[in-house]
Amino acid sequence: MEISCEEVWREVSNYLDDEITPELRARMREHFKGCRHCTAVLDGTRNVVQLVGDAKAFVLPGGFSDRLYRKLERKLSQDGRL
Amino acid sequence: MSAVAVRTGLPRTILRVAGETLAGTKSQVEPLESELIQRALGGQHEAFRELVRPCERAVFMATQAILKNEADAEDAAQEAILKAFTNLPKFRGDSKFSTWLVRIATNEALMKLRKERRQQLHDSLDDVRKNEKGDYVPRDFADWREIPSEALQTKELRQALSRALASLTPKHREVLVLRDVQHFTIEETAKRLSIGKSAVKTRLLRARLQMRDALAPGMDGSWSTGRRKYKQVRPW
Fold first, then answer.
1. pTM
2. Domains and CATH numbers, chain B
3. Of B12, B21, B180, B223, which to mutate for an interface test with A (greatest number of A Cβ within 10 Å)?
């Protein structure tokens, strides 16, 4: 049975997470074969998941450690532990 | 690989971060985590630093992914580490120290975010484009097939990513962060946020599609070529 583009968009995230039935998966796969728009949405969404999940996406700001340990030392001296 | 790395129950991303640090100290004898904790509890503050140092990036990553700007993220990360220091006597060792610390950081950032959310009078959720059924509708269908991981080396892409994350509403951002940045399962994400699995899936869908729209080729508007041919444009 055919599936509409709207239905595909609604399930694209579940498709990537494998949270759909094998039957729906098969219907969506069939739809992707003939729909360039939905394939672009799928590819782009997959890329987003890969991008945000990549550790390289988050880099420590310069001087982070220095500021952290200065703060820790201030706390220790306030607590009278230094 | 050290026993410390083998035992870790950290999400994949954090594992990679920790892995970098561990790789750098491979040839040295690493003091056992429990030994460092005992020394820190005994008043040797340098031991606490040694415990925290390999986790700094993972802690910052956890907070930055949740909070809008770098300054707030650094603030939350520092607060989390100070809390960990104060609460170290309560650490029971059920998990790795780094897992415990990242969890504190995530909670700290979520608390900050909720505070921020309470201050917001209007939720921009209503501003997003919906069809008559209320579904999020992708903005454009420009082709974006290549896997751009190497592109993360560029500052521009990292900034674009931060901006895109910041553009999400808090409730969509926190779901995306827990699921896609920290790699919790849908079930774990639901549990942490005290919402149902279906709510996680709905928010995740919208968050991912909005992120795609924000990052897809030509986010500056140049993607609208008005022609049938798709133009490959990168905003970074």
1. 0.63
2. 3-119 (1.10.1740.10), 131-215 (1.10.10.10)
3. B180
